[in-house]
Amino acid sequence: MSNTNDNRYVEIFNLTKAYPNPYADDVVVVDGFDLIMRKGEVVSVIGHSGCGKSTVLTMVAGLNETSGGSIAVAGREISGPGPDRAVVFQSPCLLPWLTSLENVLLGVDQVYPHGTKAERRQICEHYLAAVGLADSMNKYPREMSGGMQQRVGIARAIALKPRMLLLDEPFGRLDSLTRMDLQDVIIDILNRERITTMIITHDVDEAIYMSDRVCMMTSGPAAKVGQLLDLPFERPRVRSEVLEHPMYYDLRGSLVSFLEQQDHSGDDSSNDDGTMHVFQAMTTTTHELPAREIARENKETPLAAAV
Ligand SMILES: Nc1ncnc2c1ncn2[C@@H]1O[C@H](COP(=O)(O)OP(=O)(O)OP(=O)(O)O)[C@@H](O)[C@H]1O
């Protein structure tokens, strides 16, 4: 019998991170971050620059030690990095002396040591084709554009058949057309493979298009989950249907409104009647998490649709 519960596939409880400060007390960047993800669910994490999004993602990846709290994936508490959690960063960091196929093979060789060489190669070819690189398997990174290199990075991550995919602003360095192409590449793969995925993004529209829920982080220091927003769009997801959905602009407004509140110093995100502004334009389900006064000396970014 499996010891995992598909409704609680990823369990992040009371996650905390304090970075050392050589001149004063440690800086508590994340404090009390709680999130439960269902198996196959795609959650975007959005928040102002510097609030701690990447800190959360790298802790889930096991690349950044936690200061407190716990993270469990598929019923097992994580204690370091592992191939069960594949990460795609803004820059794919390919090995320049290897072709795209060889770059993907590096990880696949580790994960499928008992497969034959031909089987492992077939897995790499399958995922490189899935990201649109069927004709570029023997190219070196220097022969590929930034978008193509990022496709290799995505293929490399997904070929590991991870339990969880962690995407840290994976399109941050790409032009808007390439960005849209790659959003669709990932959406297609997620439609087929149903990998539980966390995406860090600054882009409200990307968060809405890509995910099943949006996790909105409060501004740091001591950032945590401020709101969770359920999205009503079906999968497989079609961009035009999402954009034309009658709820689209209300949902977008809710996200922007939350971020705007976080941008206002000393605002505790509540109306006079204690309700959250973010709920006002909404008819879909949201889950309110306990509010806490957050000191925000560290705000940086003016609000825009992309924060
Ligand atoms: N290794 C580190 N040591 C000390 N402070 C750090 C370290 N890494 C990040 N920080 C600080 O922690 C805070 C959160 O950083 P983080 O990169 O997680 O934020 P973010 O929300 O992902 O930012 P952005 O959206 O700009 O990428 C920032 O103030 C940053 O300066």
Automatic annotation (TrEMBL):
Q: Which Pfam families match?
A: ABC_tran
Enzyme nomenclature, EC number:
3.6.3.-
Where found, per UniProt?
A: Cell membrane
- Chief subcellular site? membrane
Region annotation Disordered: where it falls in the sequence: 287-307
Query: By its UniProt entry, which InterPro entries does this protein fall under?
Result: AAA+_ATPase (IPR003593), ABC_transporter-like_ATP-bd (IPR003439), ABC_transporter-like_CS (IPR017871), ABC_transporter_ATP-bind (IPR050166), NO3_transporter_ATP-bd-like (IPR005890), P-loop_NTPase (IPR027417)
Per UniProt, the keywords (alphabetical) are: ATP-binding, Cell membrane, Hydrolase, Membrane, Nucleotide-binding, Transport
Which Gene3D superfamilies does this one have?
Answer: P-loop containing nucleotide triphosphate hydrolases (3.40.50.300)
* Entry-linked CDD domains: ABC_NrtD_SsuB_transporters
Q: Which GO terms describe its molecular function?
A: ATP binding; ATP hydrolysis activity; nitrate transmembrane transporter activity
Which top EC class is given? hydrolase
Tell me if Ion transport is a UniProt keyword of this record: no
Q: What protein name does the entry list? A: Bicarbonate transport ATP-binding protein CmpD
Q: What is the lineage of its organism?
A: Bacteria, Pseudomonadati, Planctomycetota, Planctomycetia, Pirellulales
